[in-house]
Amino acid sequence: MTTSFSLAVVGGDGIGPEVTAQALAVLDVVAPAHGLSFATTDYDLGARRYHATGETLPDSVLEEIRGHDAILLGAVGDPSVPSGVLERGLLLKLRFALDHYVNLRPSKLYSGVATPLGDHVTSRGDIDFVVVREGTEGPYVGNGGAIRVGTPHELATEVSINTAFGVERVVRDAFARAQARPRKKLTLVHKNNVLVHAGHLWTRTVDAVATEFPEVSVDYLHVDAATIFLVTDPARFDVIVTDNLFGDILTDLAAAITGGIGLAASGNVNPDGTAPSMFEPVHGSAPDIAGQSKADPTAAILSGGMLLDHLGFPEAAAQITAAVEADITERSSTPRSTEEVGEAIASRVAGGVPVG
Amino acid sequence: MTTSFSLAVVGGDGIGPEVTAQALAVLDVVAPAHGLSFATTDYDLGARRYHATGETLPDSVLEEIRGHDAILLGAVGDPSVPSGVLERGLLLKLRFALDHYVNLRPSKLYSGVATPLGDHVTSRGDIDFVVVREGTEGPYVGNGGAIRVGTPHELATEVSINTAFGVERVVRDAFARAQARPRKKLTLVHKNNVLVHAGHLWTRTVDAVATEFPEVSVDYLHVDAATIFLVTDPARFDVIVTDNLFGDILTDLAAAITGGIGLAASGNVNPDGTAPSMFEPVHGSAPDIAGQSKADPTAAILSGGMLLDHLGFPEAAAQITAAVEADITERSSTPRSTEEVGEAIASRVAGGVPVG
Ligand SMILES: CC(C)[C@H](C(=O)O)[C@@H](O)C(=O)O
Ligand SMILES: CC(C)[C@H](C(=O)O)[C@@H](O)C(=O)O
Fold first, then answer.
1. Which of A19, A264, A271, B302 has the fewest CB atoms within 10 Å around its CB?
2. Which domains does chain B have, with CATH numbers?
């Protein structure tokens, strides 16, 4: 018996399509052994379409995408498009419209991977944590505006919106994840000594939900202090729950200390299943190296693994993670093309020897 | 001839008074040779006063403080006071009321200082940059609120307010600082692909002011990417200009990579001189080690140096920096008390041999 899933594929801009192609190739290799198959629909969205038609994400396309079981996304953003147009009009529109309220970003330092941190830091313990970043609220809501633009009297606002409903559901999800991990530890990161209204909502919510998870130990860090610990004692973290903007910042830093954004995967998850979840590398479109087969597809491939896990195939996901881990650990310093990395990981998944 | 300056001293909470005492002692040692003297007024503000009277910063006290030439602040915040009360009611009230629009935070990795970064990163070049953090706008304005607090329908907002007036003055200050430095490089950090209204105001302002400083080279980083570069290539930075919240986050990370917040000084500067500027260590009140003579007063002492520089005594300031640098470089691993560190730096300033 084969279970077939429909995947909406949004390669997007820059290196997005290249790395997504490798992620799909690896998915196709892992699928059969688990009785899985994928039917993909490609969506031409991003800078090219914007220039051709002025569209970022037409409603009809959004509705088509919604009909799929999951979404695989490459990267969004191009210097030829004003900053924010594609990010807000395409990437964030997908996250918000499809209610991706859990933006899941695991960070793990694999052995042998280069990190900017010194040995005295990395030897303090295993770096293996996950950031549960809220995905549908906070300063990302796009609520704000400007008056008298371009004059000396310009005033621009950005409004962070936070609701008990929105905070509680992501906090509960984060507690459940902490509960399921060996260390059972949750750290709330916010800035509740300055952003008192939103911060206290987060703090009170964590305190309340904590009573349902008595085995989970909880602490709190201001976002500024959290960045310090991420570089001085990252092993202290297990599950971090935080708001949309703080999560954006912390996960880039987390990626940096665990080998770079070339390795960092993410899932924009709708845990309620009311719309498809979306999986994408944390890195951007890297227009400077686009089309040169220089991009590392590892993060995209790992995102494919997260997609499998989300669809209910943890063993298949683990196969991808193991193949990536082996590939990373045994990487030589000889540069490989995007395709070579993809093929090497694919053949490890297939049980073969590394190619290229 | 002696020039006398009046200093308002706000030791504040936790380790604040201890470290401030050492900063004052060092100022007193350096002063005479430069024809300087200080008359200090102590202000009892912080948790103790809040518990005793319910006050954080009465208007009459604010007006008294305003009458001084400069302010030396220790630290604000105590676990016995709800998070935000002292921060917003005292520290931020001072910064906003006294129009400290340039929050100046230098970061320098002195030789011999322990950093979490590996040699392969620190050997890429000298880490020596300054963050010009906007101090009177952004998400720190305290504009926001909450309705239905404590119910499942709670909604909390935080509004970031940004004006052309406020952004331009800090950007111009940052350009002038970049112009005066050997590398003449300015990096704007924001998140203009998401916070498009505020972000584009910042971007356009930097572009406009750049025409007045043709020798300064300018680049832009999203805040998430900036955290990556701070740990992978911090030597790339010279002057960073950024908003209030991003500046808060980046400067803690900057402090972490250059030896920790025990060494990080800051100035809340009113460049127009319409009110006294305020100098304080970047670290917090560290209530867990308060009263135990364990706090490192170096950051407070360096903040005293920034105060001297601001008052127009760069040589006196340089004497403090040099004494601190010598002390840091020659530190042994034997722990010293707050007083011992202060005395060691003071006697280096006095030209004597290190004490303790
Ligand atoms: C491209 C950008 C809008 C996005 C974000 O800020 O969320 C990216 O930085 C990320 O972390 O996925
Ligand atoms: C204590 C707090 C309000 C303050 C800030 O957020 O500005 C501190 O973190 C700082 O950086 O000076």
1. A271
2. 1-101+266-356 (3.40.718.10), 115-258 (3.40.718.10)
